[in-house]
Amino acid sequence: GMAQAALGAAGLHFDELNKLRVLEPGVAEQTAQLREECRDFLGKIVEFQKIVGSLIELVDQLAKAAESEKMKAIGARNLLKSIAKQREAQEQQLQALISEKKIQLERYRIEYETLCKIEADQNEFIDQFIFQK
């Protein structure tokens, strides 16, 4: 007992296998337990990093998909705008054509009226000529 006490005072201890140790068996056990807990904790940290990594990857993919959909939407909107512009241009062309045809129609109407008047004048002249005879 005294030898053990003297060794204990010098900071030396026997473990359960009667090996000489610098640490008290209780402290040595706690140290081993702490080492094990640290190892577990590190394992959990690594696992957590993996999860965070795959989450970041997923968010990246979603962002890319969203960007791609946005581009598709912009493309579709631009297409609709250009179609609308084409329609507008066609409508203007048709309106111009209608105006042109209306002017032409008016010219023909005036020409027809003039011809009718000439015909009436000529008929009157023919009638007078016949009655004079």
TrEMBL record:
Record Pfam families: IFT20
InterPro entries given in the database record: FT20
Localization, UniProt: Cell projection, Cilium
Keywords from the named record: Cell projection, Coiled coil
Residues forming coiled coils: 80-111
GO BP field: cilium assembly; protein localization to cilium
GO cellular component: centrosome; ciliary basal body; ciliary base; cytoplasm; intraciliary transport particle; neuron projection; non-motile cilium
Superkingdom of origin organism: Eukaryota
Name of this protein: IFT20 protein
Record organism: Ardeotis kori
Gene: Ift20
